[in-house]
Specification:
- There is one protein chain.
- This protein is about 40% helix and about 10% strand.
- The protein is of the alpha/beta class.
- It has an eight-stranded parallel beta barrel. It has a five-stranded mixed sheet with strand order 1-2-4-3-5.
- Helix 7 links the parallel strand 6 and strand 7.
- It is globular.
- Bound molecules: 4-O-methyl-beta-D-glucopyranuronic acid.
- 4-O-methyl-beta-D-glucopyranuronic acid binds next to loops.
């Protein structure tokens, strides 16, 4: 080799080692544990972090030690954390309440007495920090609480935290198929690599468990509700068991989706009739078998009699008959049935939004003790804005759980930035008036309103094989917020957003403040450019991406847009008052009275419940047509403002992340314009009025938007 070549080689090697390893901050989610840059802050935390004692030696304690090691090496690069947790003279003490030194226990008696299962306390006393709980999992949650305090730069010497989860089962629902496609998934394929399971436990499963435990999620249903019965066979149970084993130290239980006719599909029974003794026996044997693989199996999540899924209707039985057959099988093992209320049929002539209530309300009290009915946030289907589901507050004898959709099927899928917590908060804080004013949906869910024996909440996961898990970097925040709201449905969503931003990106207020502001306004902005004034279900057919107010005809009327908006020259909107479908009667009188009058109802829900003439004057002083056009325009301007706000943050965070967001925001702005233009051109055919001043005209004609085709949209 010539001298010159040798030199070139040496130079290349030198350069390679100098370059930072290709950063992939997205993978680490909110558990970045970035170095603490400010020297004074670093020193003050290091004093504590260098002397930690973890009292226990269970698998969960091992997980705690490992997390501390990871966090320590991140916060204080270069320090040695190989024996973290072994300090004999601790500055941070992590252990169960029963092991607390007497003097500490008596000084904190009140706090400790109010710790419920898996709750934790963090407090500083005489120069030490204590992390304590009654359970091992509570200690893990407490450890994550401590790390969050450091990540968000809380001074440890004044820590005073008492956290009890308000909802017992806080779960993710994966709509993941066994072939690894994900229904309504926009972040790649399923992270469950069934082919390599059970022998290979990917690090990603562990990181998934860490992330979930850090926000208190304690259950996961790993397969699609449009279920494949194969998951209940030994080949797959062995694989599911391997996942359950990996998740156990993190306090996460595995649930599976059960296909209602599995007895027929798997073992050739002639029927799946839930009242047939052979069918009941089949489910019992199946449950026994599952518990041999997964001793702490959580239970079944079931979609029945909906969108082609088999169910008790096939045998003239009720939803309670169906749920109870499975519940009876799980009961001896302590398992739960989560039975979805998303039941509707094109053959039922009533308004689709009424059908779940009509079917389930009369069954209140008829479900076995280990059944929870899982209800979507609104009566239709995860639209950008829906009123709360009328079943909340109407089933005092049957535990109801919430189903939110974290994946953004109807909210821009993977490229729009919208903080879903704002939408969820609106529903959680809605007043059902079930027991007078203040009977919020959150109080239904946490069991305080009706004294439910089980409480639960689920979010349809937005997780996939994308390097950053969720496709959109900001969609990680939806996963995070879901966990925090599942733990406490009354938590402050601004605080949640701030914590998440600080943990994920930076504590720099010149980044955090404007971004929180965008997050808090983003939902309203999206609603404005997609479905203002209570419009709903006006998206494209089947893949649901982009506008499709013209969608009509086909196999099912209740899957079209015209069924819902009913636009004509006289006006627009679905009359759900007494003169129409009377869906309003499903709400408590106080709610009904607020909403029945088109002049009193919030404009946000106007066209959900009312049919309104185009030239009706609204409270804003605009006609309906003007208001609609102005809101679409306002939405577009909002999206542009989000983009501008982001562009001004250049240089404040990781460059690749900044660029990722920049390009997504450009997509969001152009899609907001697409929604506005397509919808206004379509509705203008009926309103027959010009666009009001300030609303930009579309670049193309309606035909162009209607002819717009896209192939292979993900998620179906
Ligand atoms: O929103 C609809 C989706 C379906 C989904 C269904 C459900 C899993 O378009 O993809 O199926 O809801 O919630 O069951």
């Amino acid at each position: 080799m010539s001298y010159y070549r040798k030199f070139l080689w040496a130079f290349c090697l030198f350069v390679c080692f100098q370059l930072p390893v290709q950063a992939d901050p997205g993978y680490k989610l909110w558990l970045q544990y970035a170095p603490i840059e400010d020297a004074r802050e670093r020193d003050s935390y290091r004093v504590f972090f260098s002397q930690i004692q973890v009292m226990g030696h269970s698998d969960t304690d091992a997980v705690i030690r490992k997390e501390l090691q990871l966090a320590g090496s991140g916060f204080f690069p270069g320090d040695d954390f190989s024996s973290v947790g072994e300090s004999a003279d601790p500055k941070i003490w992590i252990g169960k309440v029963s092991l607390l030194p007497n003097s500490v226990a008596s000084a904190q008696a009140d706090k400790l007495a109010s710790l419920s299962e898996d709750g934790y306390a963090l407090f500083a006393l005489e120069g030490r920090v204590f992390v304590t709980s009654n359970t091992e999992i509570g200690l893990l949650y407490g450890t994550f609480g401590l790390l969050k305090a450091i990540q968000t730069r809380q001074p440890l010497t004044s820590l005073e935290v008492l956290e009890n989860p308000k909802i017992q089962t806080r779960m993710l629902n994966h709509w993941d198929n066994l072939n690894r496609t994900v229904e309504r998934g926009y972040a790649g394929f399923s992270i469950w690599n069934w082919h390599r399971l059970p022998k290979h436990i990917d690090q990603q499963y562990i990181d998934y468990a860490r992330a979930n435990a850090s926000i208190g999620i304690n259950a996961t249903s790993i397969t699609n509700v449009n279920a494949n019965a194969l998951v209940l066979t030994p080949v797959y149970l062995e694989k599911a068991a391997a996942l359950a084993d990996a998740f156990r130290p993190y306090g996460i239980k595995v649930f599976l989706t059960a296909r209602f006719n599995a007895p027929m599909q798997l073992d050739g029974l002639e029927t799946a009739d839930p009242l047939d003794p052979a069918v009941r026996e089949w489910w019992k044997k199946k449950a026994d078998e599952i518990y041999r693989y997964i001793p702490d199996f959580g239970g079944f999540l079931v979609k029945a009699d909906s969108e082609g899924q088999p169910g008790p209707h096939n045998y003239g039985r009720t939803q309670a008959d169906g749920a109870n057959a499975l519940a009876e099988a799980l009961e001896p093992h302590g398992g739960l049935v989560m039975w979805r209320a998303f039941v509707y049929s094109e053959n039922t002539p009533t308004d689709r939004t009424k059908q779940a209530f009509d079917e389930f309300k009369p069954l209140d009290g008829k479900f076995n003790d280990n059944v929870i009915v899982q209800v979507k946030n609104g009566p239709l289907d995860f639209q950008p804005r829906e009123p709360f589901h009328p079943l909340f507050g109407a089933m005092p004898e049957t535990p109801l759980m919430m189903e939110f959709q974290i994946t953004k099927e109807y909210l821009g899928q993977d490229t729009h930035w919208v903080n879903l917590a704002s939408m969820w908060e609106e529903v959680l804080q809605a007043d059902t008036y079930a027991k007078g004013a203040g009977s919020t949906v959150s109080n239904v869910l946490d069991g305080s309103l009706h004294g439910y024996r089980h409480t639960a909440i689920a979010g349809v996961a937005n997780i996939g094989t994308d390097r950053n898990w969720t496709g959109h970097p900001m969609a990680q925040g939806d996963w995070y917020s879901f966990g925090r709201l599942a733990w406490n449905p009354d938590a402050d969503i601004r605080e949640i957003a701030e914590d998440w931003l600080k943990m994920t990106f930076t504590n720099d207020p010149s980044f955090v403040d404007p971004v929180v502001d965008v997050m808090m306004k983003s939902h309203e902005i999206l609603v404005d450019y997609m479905t203002p004034l209570g419009l709903h279900h006006i998206m494209a057919r089947s893949h649901h991406w982009g506008p499709g107010p013209w969608v009509t005809g086909g196999r099912r009327d209740d899957w079209t847009a015209t069924y819902y908006h009913r636009a004509s020259e006289d006006g627009i909107g679905f009359d759900r008052t007494e003169s129409g479908s009377n869906a309003l009667e499903q709400y408590a009188p106080e709610v009904r009275n607020q909403w029945r009058n088109p002049d009193n109802i919030s404009l946000d829900y106007l066209l959900w419940f009312h049919r309104v003439a185009w030239d009706k004057k609204l409270s804003t002083g605009n006609t309906l047509w003007e208001e609609m056009a102005l809101r679409y325009q306002r939405g577009v301007e909002g999206a542009r403002w989000m983009e501008q706000t982001w562009l001004a943050l250049d240089g404040r965070i990781d460059e690749a992340m900044f660029e990722h967001m920049r390009s997504f925001l450009a997509i969001q702005v152009s899609e907001a314009e697409w929604w506005r233009d397509a919808c206004l051109l379509y509705f203008q055919q009926f309103s027959q009025q010009p666009l009001p001043a300030g609303v930009e005209a579309a670049a193309h004609d309606l035909e162009y938007y209607q002819g717009f085709r896209r192939f292979f949209v993900p998620g179906i």
